[in-house]
Amino acid sequence: MKKIIYILLGLALAAVVAIAALVSLVDPNQFKPQLAEQVRKSTGRELVMEGDIGWRFWPSLGLSLEKVQLRNPAGFAEPDLLRFAQGDASVALLPLLSHRLEIGKVTLSGAHLFIQTRADGSSNLNGLVKT
Fold first, then answer.
1. Which residues are 49's β-sheet partners?
2. Cα–Cα distance between 64 and 98 in angstroms, integer?
3. Along the 131 residues of the chain, how does pLDDT read in single tens digits?
4. What is the rounded distance in angstroms from the CA atom of residue 70 to the CA atom of residue 15?
5. Is the Cβ–Cβ distance between 90 and 105 less than 8 Å?
6. What pTM does this model have?
7. How far is CA 27 from CA 24, 32, 54, 63, 90, in A?
8. Of 21, 80, 126, 130, which residue is the least packed, with the fewest Cβ within 10 Å?
9. What are the two backbone dihedrals, phi and then psi, of residue 49, each rounded to the nearest 5 degrees?
C-alpha cells in the first residue's frame, strides 16, 4: 500500500515540476511573430495580438490570448474581420505523447465577426481558405 502512495506522490511531484519548468522556460509570447507570419502566409491577412499569450493548466493544458484582431482586406467598411477580447484554447494531453494534436475546447469572449459582401460579389471571406 505504501508503494502505491509513494508512486502516486512521485507522479504528482513530477507533474508539478514539469509544469513549473514549462512556465519558466517557455514564454508563449515569443511565438507571436511566427503566428502572425503564418496567418499572413496562409490568408494574406494581418493578425494583430495586442495582449499577452498565457498558459492555462486547469481544467486542461491550453493557451489564453487577449485583444486579438484579424484584419479585413482594404476597401471594406470595418478594419477587422474578427476581433475578440479574450480567447482560450485547450489540447488533450495524451495524444501529444503520440505526436498528435487534438484541440479540446475553444472559447471566445467579446467576439465580433464582420462579414460583408460588396455589390460586385466579392466578400471579405474570399481567400481565407485555399481551395
1. 68
2. 24
3. 888 888 888 888 887 787 777 777 888 899 999 999 999 998 889 999 999 999 887 767 889 999 999 999 988 999 999 999 999 999 887 787 788 888 888 999 999 999 999 989 889 998 887 65
4. 36
5. yes
6. 0.74
7. 7, 10, 8, 11, 17
8. 130
9. -120, 95
